[in-house]
Amino acid sequence: MSLARIPFWLVMLIASMVVAQNVNYQQDPNWKVPVEAAEKKNPLANQPELAAGGKKLFIRICVECHGRSGEGVKRNAADLQLSIVQAQSDGALFWKITNGNPDRGMPSFSRLPELQRWQIVLYLRALKPTESSS
Ligand code: HEC
After folding, report:
1. Which of 65, 94, 98 to mutate to test the pocket of ligand 1 (most atoms within 8 A of CB)?
2. Closest C-alpha among 67, 81, 76 to residue 31
3. Are 60 and 70 in contact (CB under 8 A)?
4. Between vectors from CA 124 to CA 55 and to CA 26, what angle results, nearest 5°?
5. CA–CA gap between residue 31 and residue 97 (Å, rounded)
6. Which residues, including other chains, have CB under 8 Å from residue 56's CB and lie 6 or more apart?
7. d(CA 98, CA 14)
8. Do the beta carbons of residue 78 and residue 85 sit within 8 Å?
9. Which residue puts its alpha carbon closest to atom 40 of ligand 1?
10. How do the pLDDT tens digits run along the chain, 134 residues long?
């Protein structure tokens, strides 16, 4: 069989398995961030060096579902590198981490100290966006 006969969808399916990223992640339209929450600024925004601590926290508590680079390994877990995620404000990501979306498998992390949550947001910003993955 020549390569040209392999259906395009199959190539894409295999490619997505090889890359192992949840690029097909569909956001929950009902998981809406309140406007005031989305407008909150990251109090650590001018201390980018704190992203390293955010990475440690991320690896400890988020990796199981989101993968080391935020690529979304567990079923339904968001690929945090996607532009639909990165386009959201720091406040919106903070709110989502704080409240979670338990019905769809994202736990609430309100028990984590607030500054640690902001630190994780700093780290999320350091993830490489995936549009062209390699
Ligand atoms: C038990 C698995 C699990 C763990 C642990 C987890 N997540 Fe999630 N996360 C999910 C799932 C599933 C979704 C998608 C929820 C949905 O479909 O609405 C999600 C969504 C998100 C989103 C929103 C993406 C969007 O669409 O805007 C962010 C941000 C996020 N997670 C960050 C984190 C961070 C940071 C941690 C660690 C503190 C973490 N998650 C830990 C499963 C998890």
Report:
1. 65
2. 76
3. no
4. 130
5. 12
6. none
7. 35
8. yes
9. 62
10. 566 788 877 776 666 555 567 778 889 999 999 999 999 999 999 999 999 999 999 999 999 999 988 888 887 899 999 989 999 999 999 999 999 999 999 999 999 999 999 999 999 999 876 654 44
